[in-house]
Write a structure and sequence with these properties.
It is built from twelve helices and 14 strands. The chain is of the alpha/beta class and 421 residues long. It has a single domain (75-420), classed as Rossmann fold. The two termini are 27 Å apart. Residues 8-33, 49-61 and 417-421 have low confidence and may be disordered. It comes from Carnegiea gigantea.
Amino acid sequence: MLNFTRIRTQSRNCRSLPLAGKEGMDYSDPKKKGNAIGKVLVAAGLVTFCLVMMKQSPTFNTPTQFSHHEPGVTHVLVTGGAGYIGSHAALRLLKDSYRVTIVDNLSRGNLAAVKILQQLFPEPGRLQFIYADLGDGAAVNRIFSENAFDAVMHFAAVAYVGESTLDPLRYYHNITSNTLVVLKAMVLHGVHTLIYSSTCATYGEPEKMPITEETPQMPINPYGKAKKMAEDIILDLSKQKPALAVMILRYFNVIGSDPEGRLGEAPRPELREQGRISGACFDAARGIIPGLKVRGTDYKTPDGTCVRDYIDVTDLVDAHVKALEKAKPGKVGIYNVGTGKGRSVKEFVAACKKATGVDIKVEYLPRRPGDYAEVYSDPRKIRQELNWTARYTDLEESLRIAWRWQKVHRNGYGPVLAAAI
């Protein structure tokens, strides 16, 4: 059974009950006085019953394995753990015997992904899910007070460049402000290790390739700006709190899915227009959309389309786990997570056609606001310091693995299509 907790201030069945009565009640009348006393006793009995039932609940003020530190066990809070990257990270942590708490408001995540993880790791004390919004400071503080976290992997964020240009305030609130809420709770409750999921969008459009960790950060869209602001807050805090162990991972364009087919990418239907190119390719291959829209063919690149560094999600979560293992108090590590090789959008589409076996129709459109021409990483630092190297670097193979999941999950995490298995 899924260990599911929803943060609320009152029990749904035990909200305060108003005492019935009449204005101008004559308390000198013994019958009326008796009625009032009877109603008070009934109400008191109901409240007592509620309290008894709540105390019988296994989640009411009962210490659990999640609420105390245990020697040899690292308890990781994974924010946004119901999302595409967060769920894959949670899977890897659970496989490596970490204790995991997922916090997600499900605005972009999928509860079904969490249920799959629970089915894979049903043992008590392995995984719990808490439905909460990181923008709710009281809820976040309560989560930290009721759980003994050793580290935080902070993935939760809206993450579409185009959408950020249309709704910038949402991005600054969701990314920057919510990160501040998490940091305050960490400080208040003595959680000293943070693995922060950042982005190459903080670099903007550098003049020189490849991008190193020393490349100036000059983001050109609200998504990148919000992430950089969050990074700056984290860096300032680390100077004032020397006990903090911080790792900031700036990763590039994520593709792929779990090689064993347990998890995949399933964005909300209304976000398909803003989503990753891999999702759009698969939607076109399945006939969900009539074709693929490529935005921008006049960039200063070899074929005129954007060049990106595509990192497989399995490699990405491996980098996060290695960062967690190497995090040290008083140290801040900043790393680019990429393959070191740029691929154009046209190259990506060609690989997607081969992976799916479908001759996808392509429509070329004007540029999308906030996009940049060319971005790819120099991964030497992370290789030297964390002993991490991307292994899934065959673009077509990563897409083929993801396509297997997509074929049987036409409705995302909805019913599996038996005919396609």
